[in-house]
Amino acid sequence: MNGTKSARGRRIVLWRHGQTAWNLERRFQGSTDIELTETGFGQARRAARLLAALRPDAIVASDLQRAAATARELAALTRLDVTHDAALRETYAGSWQGLTHDEILAQYGEQYTAWKRGEPVRRGGGELETEVADRAAPVVLNHADKLPENGTLVVVSHGGTIRTTIGRLLGLDSHHWEGLGGLSNCCWSVLGEGARGWRLLEHNAGTLPEPVLGDDD
């Protein structure tokens, strides 16, 4: 989707962190604090150059190191301070965390299938997607409310948290949040202020087609 250049009003850019070793292994990170790979740092530097061109007014980020390190690359170019907030962390997924995709299917197949059907599932005994949105979306809105007219906020977070936040801000029923699709590492989505609320202007932008590694992490 495109339309960012013609957008008026405030904008929210939701930017996923760079690549980690667990992404490559398709290992569920959740709230586990995993660092970026060298490739991940390179992705963050490249994406930061593109996002700096949007002249953001504020940056807020998850305090997990993969998101915080990604945010630092943009802060270095824009000279903006980064506000860190634990409410922007990825979904806590209990016993799923640290398992590969195949291990989750083998050990929690029914739970995984129910989640993919859109049922409210506490993956691994962790958070519901609606609970993630309950903590993350208000933080995003609070920072957006502080923007100047036509200002831009960059939110550096995680795939699952970004998807649930977008779903909540667009007013979509949680059953349909999966339909938004995931973000590749260091790609972003853009919400713009419309007459009836927030509108999705771009989704998974910033790269030629890349596989989505580790959808919720």
Q: What portion of the residues fall into strands of 2 or more residues? A: 15-25%
Runs in which pLDDT lies below 50 for 5 or more consecutive residues are 1-7
* Structural category: alpha/beta
CATH superfamily: Phosphoglycerate mutase-like
**In the CATH classification, which architecture applies?**
3-Layer(aba) Sandwich
The tally of structural domains comes to 1
Arithmetic mean pLDDT: 92
Helix count, per DSSP? 6
* Number of beta-strand segments: 6
CATH topology: Rossmann fold
Shape: globular
Radius of gyration: 16 Å
Largest sheet: 6 strands, mixed
InterPro entries: His_Pase_superF_clade-1 (IPR013078), His_PPase_superfam (IPR029033), PG/BPGM_mutase_AS (IPR001345), PGM_Phosphatase (IPR050275)
Protein name: Histidine phosphatase family protein
Active site: 17 (tele-phosphohistidine intermediate), 90 (proton donor/acceptor)
Binding site for substrate: 16-23, 66
